[in-house]
Structure formats: structure tokens, C-alpha cells
């Protein structure tokens, strides 16, 4: 028996010697290529840097075998959950957070009895959700982890971080206080609490400012509406209301005097339709300033005065607009202040009313036949006695404003 054992050993040694001698003279056929050894090395499951998205047993038989071992039904739920956690951690390191979430979720589905392991799966999945910007999902996982392990530091940190991102500063303080009760010296919890406390004070300050500003704007709006109502100016909105329940007009565009109910529409009816978005306002002296539109139908031109004070007259503005320098479209040089006539058209019908250019704007706006449309008083400017003026006025009823 001894001789047989010795003989077997000798045969083995002889075989190895023969193999080594052969290796000296013949190149090993399955060796890595010197120029592509890194790529070939990466195909071996043990040395892979990144796992493929889908594993084809025909292409990666070794990797498929390893995965089948990971998901082997013969193992305990704890072993399976641990393997899936490790798998998720590898995906997480590769910043493949979606795949990491899938792995952690599969681990939780194993329903293992290890509360600590399940808490880690939840906190790890919360971290992956956090990096993807899924703050609500991350917070839910942090809550689940804390239920399993109330003093779990990572769960407490993640919950506080999620609430901070969601700007729920009161909740951040609550998470941090719970965490600091169990981990009083943790610097991250202390920093999160300080940050949340600062931002909470800033948010409260901004809320107070916004409330004060809203109150101020409401007071200004009420004062403006009262001033318009006191003057008896009629308003109408020809565009469709942006809010329901307005008392200023109905869907057919019926005009209506200013009432207290107009405050409910947010002054929509007082905003000019011009691109400037100018609106009527009360100045420090208590005078109304209106955004006024001038129309020059002969040349299809317009002028817009963003703040026409109600105490000013048309002649003052025309003298500035058509003073030393006339507009380029007035090629005949006939739009001189003394040559111009101002008209307004009634809201319904084609009746025109000629305006006394020396009268203040308030006099015109308070006229019984005048209506302010869409927040901008509008007037037509014509050259007195011109051929176009005669043609434009022909067939229309023209009244002198009294």
C-alpha cells in the first residue's frame, strides 16, 4: 500500500515536471492578450467593475451562476436579504441608484426576522431615493427604518435631511431632537438642527413680511377703489374675467359702476392691456393717475402715457408730445398742438364726443357717457379740418363734451 501511494506521488510529480517543461517551450493557449488584458479581466465576475444590466447565461454563464446562488431558494430569508443588500450596495457605489433601489426592495420582500438588517435596507434605499431627488420616498423609508430601530443614527439623519429639502423645518427640528437624545454628540445632527432653526426663523420672518405687504396692498386697493367710486368713474372689462364672481361686468361685457365687490376681482379690471401692464394708482396727494392710450387712426399709430394725472389736461401732454420735435410718421408736419382735436367713443355705438383739451382728465372720466375699458382711458387724436378727419367723422354722431 505504501509503495502504491509513493508511486502515485511520483506519477503526480512526474506529470507536473512534464507540464512545466512543456510550458517552457509552448505558449499557453488560454492566456490573456497583452494589449486587451484589462477588458478580458473585466469579463470575469470576480473582477468585474460594473455588472451588466441584464445577465444572459449564454454570454455570462459564470455571472448567471453567481446570481442564481444569490437568489437560491434554499437559503434563509436573512441570507437572501443580506446578499441583496450587498448587491444594492455595489450598485450604490457605482451611482446606479435605480438598480440599488430594486435590490434593496427585493431584500425587504424577503421578510427576514432581522430588524437591524431590515432597518439598514430601509436606510440604504432612502439614501438611493435621496440621491435621485425622491424626497418623499426617502422620508417614508427613513420613517420605516426608525420604527424598526428608533435610535438608528442613519435613519434619523436621513429623515432630518429629507425634511430640510422639503422645507419642513419644524419636522427637521423634531428629527434632530430625537436623534440628539440618543446621540447627543453627533455633529451632523447638531449642524442640521442649527441650519433648520436658522431657516425656520427666516421663513417666519418672510411670512410676516408677506402678510404685512398683503395687508398694505389690500389697504391701497381699498383706498383706490373708494377713490374711483367717489368720482363716479365707470369701468368695464372687455376681456374674459380671470376670476369668477366679479361684480364689475357679466360675460357679455356689460358695464358697471365701481362697487365694493370689485375688490374681490383683484383689480383685474383696472390693469391696462398695454404691454407695460400699468395700472391706475393714487399718488401721495390723493390724485388718480391713469394709463392713457392715444390713437392716431390716420397713421395707425398709438401713444401710451403710463401715468396721466387726473388734474392734468390734454393740452399739457400734447404740447410735450408734439412740441419741438414731431413724430417721424407725421411727414406733412401737421400734428401741431393747436391743430389737434381729441375725441372719445362711447362704449356701445359709434357716437363720438369731442373733448375740451384744456379740461382736466377727471372731467372727461366723470362724464355720464364715458367708460374706462380694460383699465386704460382711450382717446382718438385727429387733425382739425384735414381731409382724413372729415372722412373719419362723416356718418358719425359727434357731440361736444359739456
Features:
single chain; alpha/beta; Ubiquitin-like (UB roll); three-stranded mixed sheet; 10 strands; TPR_rpt
Please explain how this structure is put together.
- The protein has 402 residues and is an alpha/beta fold.
- Among the domains are: 71-201, Tetratricopeptide repeat domain (Serine Threonine Protein Phosphatase 5, Tetratricopeptide repeat), CATH 1.25.40; 256-400, Phosphatidylinositol 3-kinase Catalytic Subunit, Chain A, domain 1 (Ubiquitin-like (UB roll), Roll), CATH 3.10.20.90.
- It contains 13 helices and ten strands.
- It has helices spanning 2-25, 37-41, 61-70, 77-93, 97-109, 115-132, 135-148, 153-165, 169-182, 187-231, 314-321, 361-365, 387-393; strands spanning 234-236, 256-257, 281-282, 288-296, 301-309, 340-345, 352-355, 372-373, 378-383, 398-400.
- The strands form two sheets. Strands 3, 4, 5, 6, 7, 9 and 10 form a seven-stranded mixed sheet that branches. A three-stranded mixed sheet has the order 2-1-8, with no helix packed on it.
- Strand 6 (340-345) and strand 7 (352-355) form a beta hairpin.
- Mean pLDDT is 81; it is low at 1-14 and 242-269.
- Belongs to the TTC4 family.
- Keywords: Repeat, TPR repeat.
- InterPro entries: Csn1/TTC4_wheel, TPR-like_helical_dom_sf, TPR_rpt.
- Residues 284-390 form the Cns1/TTC4 wheel domain.
Give me the CATH fold name of the domain at 256-400. Ubiquitin-like (UB roll)
Over the alpha carbons, how many angstroms does the gyration radius reach? 42 Å
Query: What is the distance, rounded to the nearest whole angstrom, between the alpha carbons of the first and last residues?
Result: 140 Å
Q: What is the fourth-level CATH superfamily of the domain at 256-400?
A: Phosphatidylinositol 3-kinase Catalytic Subunit, Chain A, domain 1
Q: What overall geometry do the principal axes of the alpha carbons give?
A: elongated
CATH class of the domain at 256-400: Alpha Beta
CATH architect. name of the domain at 256-400: Roll
User: What is the helix content?
Assistant: 40-55%
Q: Detail the poorly predicted runs.
A: 1-14, 242-269
How is the biggest beta sheet arranged? 7 strands, mixed
The tally of strands reads 10
What fraction of residues sit in β-strands?
A: 5-15%
Please state the structural category.
alpha/beta
What pattern of helices and strands is seen along the backbone? HHHHHHHHHHEEEEEHEEHEEHE
Compute the average pLDDT: 81
Number of H/I helices: 13
Amino acid at each position: 500500500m505504501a509503495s502504491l501511494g509513493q508511486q502515485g506521488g511520483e506519477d503526480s510529480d512526474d506529470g507536473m515536471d512534464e507540464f512545466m517543461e512543456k510550458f517552457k517551450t509552448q505558449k499557453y493557449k488560454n492566456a490573456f492578450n497583452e494589449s486587451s488584458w484589462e477588458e478580458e479581466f473585466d469579463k470575469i465576475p470576480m473582477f468585474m467593475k460594473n455588472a451588466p444590466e441584464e445577465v444572459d447565461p449564454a454570454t455570462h454563464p459564470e455571472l448567471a451562476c453567481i446570481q442564481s446562488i444569490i437568489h437560491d431558494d434554499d437559503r434563509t430569508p436573512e441570507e437572501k436579504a443580506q446578499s441583496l443588500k450587498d448587491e444594492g450596495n455595489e450598485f450604490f457605489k457605482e451611482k446606479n441608484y435605480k438598480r440599488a433601489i430594486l435590490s434593496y426592495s427585493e431584500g425587504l420582500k424577503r421578510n427576514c426576522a432581522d430588524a437591524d438588517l431590515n432597518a439598514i435596507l430601509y436606510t440604504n434605499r432612502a439614501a438611493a431615493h435621496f440621491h435621485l431627488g425622491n424626497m418623499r420616498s426617502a422620508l417614508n423609508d427613513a420613517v420605516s427604518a426608525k420604527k424598526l430601530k428608533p435610535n438608528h443614527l442613519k435613519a434619523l439623519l436621513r429623515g432630518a435631511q429629507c425634511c430640510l429639502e422639503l422645507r419642513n423645518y419644524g419636522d427637521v427640528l423634531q428629527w434632530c431632537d430625537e436623534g440628539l437624545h440618543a446621540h447627543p454628540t453627533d455633529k451632523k445632527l447638531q449642524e442640521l438642527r442649527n441650519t433648520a432653526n436658522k431657516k425656520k426663523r427666516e421663513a417666519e420672518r418672510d411670512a410676516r413680511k408677506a402678510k404685512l405687504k398683503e395687508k398694505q396692498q389690500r389697504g391701497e386697493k381699498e383706498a383706490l377703489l373708494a377713490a374711483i367710486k367717489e368720482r363716479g368713474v365707470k369701468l368695464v372689462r372687455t376681456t374674459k374675467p380671470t376670476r369668477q364672481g366679479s361684480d364689475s361686468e357679466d360675460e357679455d361685457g356689460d358695464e358697471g359702476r365701481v362697487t365694493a365687490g370689485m375688490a374681490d376681482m383683484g383689480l383685474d379690471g383696472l390693469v391696462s392691456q398695454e404691454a407695460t401692464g400699468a395700472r391706475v394708482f393714487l399718488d401721495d396727494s390723493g390724485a388718480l393717475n391713469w394709463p392713457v392710450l392715444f390713437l392716431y387712426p390716420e397713421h395707425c399709430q398709438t401713444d401710451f402715457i403710463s401715468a396721466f394725472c387726473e388734474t392734468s389736461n390734454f393740452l399739457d401732454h400734447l404740447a410735450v408730445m408734439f412740441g419741438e420735435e414731431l413724430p417721424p410718421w407725421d411727414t406733412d408736419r401737421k400734428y401741431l398742438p393747436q391743430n389737434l382735436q381729441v375725441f372719445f367713443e362711447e362704449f356701445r355705438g359709434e357716437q363720438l364726443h369731442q373733448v375740451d383739451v384744456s379740461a382736466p382728465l377727471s372731467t372727461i372720466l366723470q362724464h355720464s357717457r364715458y367708460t374706462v375699458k380694460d383699465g386704460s382711458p382711450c382717446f382718438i387724436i385727429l387733425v382739425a379740418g384735414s381731409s382724413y378727419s372729415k372722412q373719419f367723422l362723416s356718418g358719425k354722431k359727434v357731440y361736444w363734451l359739456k
